[in-house]
Amino acid sequence: MGRASTVRADPTDPTEPTEPTEATPRRFLSSYRDLMDVPGSWRLATVGIVSKLPPSMVSLSLLLLVGRSHSYGTAGLAVSALAVGQGATGPLRGRLIDRHAPRPVLLSLLAMYLTATPLLVLVVCGGGSIVAVLALAAATGASTPPVAVMMRSAWHGPEGSPLYGDLTTTAMALDSSMTGAALITGPVLASWLSLSVSPVAPFAVAALLTVASVGLLINVPGPPSRPARSGHRLGPLASAPLRRLLAAEALFVTAVTAVDVVLPIYARQHHAAGFTGLYLGILSVGSVLGSLVLGAVPNLLSRGPKVSVLLCVFAAGTGGLTLATGLSPHAVLLVCPLAGLAIGCTFAALRTTGGDLAPEGPVTETMSWLSSFDMVGGAVGAAVFAHIAADGGSRAALLLLPAVVLLAAVLGWNTRTSKRG
Fold it and tell me: What is the pLDDT of residues 245-295, one digit of tens each?
């Protein structure tokens, strides 16, 4: 009784097939094994890793390069121009990918990127005007091939494909974990190359990696995008649930960026500046692990509003950080891993839901809108919460974060779709 057994129609016939009466329990990491068994997944994962390093390197590299010949205020403006150029044109580049063959669009953007980047470096090293530096920084961002964004649409398989259902969640979780890992390793590599080799070296490495990622992606069998024209002039933005998800995404990234900005200010205000790197490092590692955990259990909260539930968990994490700041810097260190886990899970869930809500065809454009709203949220979070922390104290800034995240949870509550199970 209670043990798994098999039943044969005729016990004396060894050729009769057996039927298990109980399903074999799935192992914790079986979802990743199933994902990697899908033909082409290893190549997509390789493209994903390669494509995520350049964006994580360029901002810091540009800051260090411009800061050598201009003021750091000008360097900050150059980094902002780079982000504005990339964020403002992201949906347009995504639309071009969706409506045309990816190969010529990617190669055209790559040619422009490989022209703008060396010109930017030459103008900065030659002591060019601030206007020229800002214009070329914006052009570099605007011409960046959207390989990392295309990877998210590539992982979103259409109905009936191997990458459908729970495997989509696992794939997007893997993609988010790779993004988190790149945000750790990219700046470290960029600073080492800039300070130990040459200020120009990280730009050369980023360009080589960009070329490699484009080369790998355009040779993947079958186009990763699904060309189709949207029937509405607003494209994916015609979807009300998607608009709410984008607003939730922006608020979430605002809160995440605020945590990254406020914790170093808290450490300095409480004479624990040495903890700054530990705070941010543990948050990043926790985010990577959180993404991987969600991918290992892709059916987690499958019957509920996954995004909003995870946002509420993150709101609790930010509340825990706020309480810990009233105790000691060491207490904050203990709460950081839990907040990081919630960040990684939520990012993966937002990406999966964004792809689910994309109209048939413009998946890359939809993912580009998500990335653009990430940049908007990041800019607002850094500017607003740094100001609040500097004037009213870091704890006052952290006290506002649960409200911001809960507002995101409210907006994301009814964004589920019936396209996927």
Answer: 889 999 999 898 888 888 888 888 888 777 777 888 888 888 888 878 777
Task: Give the whole-angstrom CA distance, residue 341 versus residue 344.
Answer: 5
**Among residues 310, 302, 314, which one has the least CA distance to residue 356?**
302
Residue 389's Cα: distance from chain center in Å? 26
* The token pair that represents 77 in the structure block: 């403006």
Q: Is 33 exposed, middle or buried (0-12, 13-18, 19+ CB in 10 A)?
A: exposed
pLDDT, tens only, 159-216: 544 455 567 778 777 877 888 888 888 888 888 888 888 889 999 999 999 999 898 8
Query: Alpha carbon of 189 to those of 60, 125, 199, 314, 316: distances in Å?
Result: 10, 21, 12, 30, 33
Average pLDDT, the chain: 79
What lies within 8 Å, CB to CB, of 115 at 6+ separation is: 143
Q: Give the H or E element holding residue 7.
A: strand 6-7
Closest CA to 343 of 294, 393, 270, 395: 294
Contact 363, 234 (CB under 8 A): no
CB 58 within 8 A of CB 205: no
Q: The pTM is what?
A: 0.78
Pairwise CA distance, residues 46 & 50, whole Å: 6
Given a cut of 50, whether residue 1 has pLDDT beyond it is no
Q: Contact 146/364 with Cβ under 8 angstroms?
A: yes
What residue has token string 């933005």? 237
3-state secondary structure of 20: strand
Residue for token pair 């991987």: 292
Q: How far apart are CA 397 and CA 258, in angstroms?
A: 8
Residue 73: partners with Cβ closer than 8 Å, 6 or more residues away: none
